[in-house]
Design goal:
Layout lengths: L7 H10 L2
Length: 19
């Protein structure tokens, strides 16, 4: 995961992707 875990948006996108 190269997404900003400290941002809610990053977590939302990660969940949306299905990771």
């Amino acid at each position: 995961m190269g997404l900003p875990a400290h941002l809610p948006a990053g977590v939302f996108v990660a969940l949306a992707m299905g990771v």
